[in-house]
Design a protein that fits this description.
Two copies of one chain form a homodimer. Chain A contains eight helices and 16 strands. With 345 residues, the first copy, chain A, is α/β, with parallel strands linked by helices.
Chain lengths: 345, 345
């Protein structure tokens, strides 16, 4: 290869050490690349931005739509496709999608069967989805929504953030919609999956926000933050780094207490990397979660281990438990074909 | 959740800030977790360590076996399954698997159709696979091998390291084996895929090796390293961070020159994250690679964008081009069902 030195970035244009063109085109450039990577699966629309299944709208099928700030990839755009989301609205980095995006995505993807919104419990997301819903209701569309609030870091449910359960609710609602059930049934099963889920996160380092070129908080060499949010929100407890077995025991105990998970209960576990954590570490965390379940005689029916809902380049992970019943398990196992989750097809 | 502070790690046991139990049990604990995550797909054997398809050995099918140091997950263990590897041998971190591992994996997974080894071009890997091959030949087994040496960072082919093409060769050889072709035909198609592939990498930061608890090299705030190896080998050129469009133009130009990629040629592009790089960045890199192909009238037939061959927590990516013909494309598209790559099933 040539030894020509790569030219320098124009002064002022490099504010953060990332593989980007400029901080203000990150979302736009990434969406263009995403569109090129999955041409048969999704269509990426611009201004307003949304991603929709290539085969939408599907007659007699409830549309399942989600959205949220960018920076959590593959969520949500990576979950658009058969058996999961009909459409997703990516906002700016860590910023809610606008009502315009939600309306445009809905009009392209919804049939007369109606639309179910999956909304993470953040004030901005809730407000913008509500604005869109009000408009659609005046137009006579059938609309329902489920708010995901699974992060146990906040003591009050009203304040709980949406975390890993979002993926699980999207998968389960998408499977129900694919089977052709009604909007009311889709909403019921999505809400049940949400109620049966709890998450908790731990960060080893903060993420770097492109436009700010700085970390969202700082952790010492042996410090971890428990209960962090996926936008770099400071957690509720700073602790010293411990061996994973000990850390997982603490986190799983907290999840089980909150969920009321008991001996004989069946569960799905999602071990989610926040961005910069190696897959080996995620498997080590999962190994300890599986041991914890075995010790407590909780039946670990299914698992998902990988980067499913990141926080840019944060190091750390979240653990989600969803208590399963036969129907939730069947919907989880149903075929799915999206950029980030694929089985059975 | 409880506010109990997580107990401190025992003095001396925490050498690196990772989600692990101890530096010396990283590979072992991760393999245990991996085994629990994919029980229907793979069997994980210990002492010596290897991962084998749950349904091996397959009569009348060539066994496809690879291996290499751990720390590159999902490679290789994540590629064991239908349509790809029959078995994989994970060494210690950044350390070749031993001949014992290779022999044990081979004896469990090979039928009379023989075995094809896919070996990355590192001295240790080559030596240990050669030792195993000599033993197996004396036992009368049919053996062939392909050495992957696609990283253009080294000027001489003998010294070229195995990089992203390894994944592509494993996929293509695995598809051929699944179709029931002979060992000679599997080896031919694997060697052709290897010859038609070139890779180059760029690092924005070095990786942290658990047992050393330090970075393999240091980069300044605006420095990047072009031509890095996946074990933290220093690259052949240090440059200043540039916008991705400019960087990709430089890297794709170097790949195309070396491969002799011309207008009208058909190619597969693999944009591989090295561990800590966000998926948005990988899509931005891919967006520019797709633009580069369009400008040069190179036909971008297929792509793969994600973390497929990491270097622990290194930030950066590798780009691989594989020139496709009809047969290579058909084998690439064939069904695959492994923990890390799944389509068509």
């Amino acid at each position: 290869m040539s030894d020509t030195v790569v030219a320098q970035m124009a002064p002022g244009s490099a504010q953060v050490k990332m593989l980007i063109n400029a901080a203000d085109t990150v979302v736009s450039d990434a969406l263009e690349g995403f569109a090129q990577a999955y041409p048969g699966m999704v269509r990426v629309m611009r201004d307003p931005d949304y991603v929709v299944r290539a085969d939408a709208p599907l007659p007699q099928r409830v549309a399942i739509i989600s959205g949220g700030g960018s920076g959590h990839e593959p969520m949500h755009v990576g979950y658009v496709g058969r058996g999961m989301l009909t459409a997703a609205c990516p906002g700016a980095i860590f910023t809610s999608p606008t009502p315009d995006q939600i309306l445009a995505a809905t009009r392209v993807s919804a049939s007369q069967a109606g639309v179910l919104y999956i909304i993470k419990n953040y004030a901005g997301d809730r407000m913008n989805f509500e604005i869109a819903i009000e408009t659609l209701l005046t137009e006579g569309m059938s609309v329902a929504s489920v708010v995901v609030a699974d992060d146990i870091a906040s003591p009050s449910r009203d304040l709980r953030r949406g975390a890993g359960a979002t993926i699980i609710v999207e998968k389960i609602a998408g499977a129900a919609a694919e089977m052709g059930v009604s909007l009311a049934e889709c909403a019921e099963v999505a809400r049940r999956a949400e109620r049966q889920s709890r998450s908790v996160g731990v960060a080893l380092s903060a993420c770097t926000i492109p436009a700010l070129a700085r970390s969202s908080f700082h952790l010492g060499d042996d410090e971890i933050e428990i209960g962090i949010g996926i936008h770099g929100e400071v957690g509720r407890q700073r602790a010293t780094l411990a061996p994973v077995a000990q850390l997982v025991d603490h986190l799983c105990g907290a999840l089980a207490d909150d969920l009321g998970l008991r001996e004989g209960d069946r569960t799905l576990a999602l071990i989610n990397g926040l961005g910069a954590t190696t897959r080996m570490e995620l498997y080590i965390v999962f190994c300890e979660v599986a041991r914890w379940c075995a010790t407590r005689r909780v039946v670990l029916e299914r698992s998902l281990v990988g980067n499913y809902m990141t926080s840019l380049d944060m190091a750390g992970c979240t653990i989600t438990f969803t208590r399963l019943d036969d129907e939730l398990l069947q919907l989880w196992d149903a075929p799915v074909c999206t950029p980030a989750l694929r089985w059975g097809v």
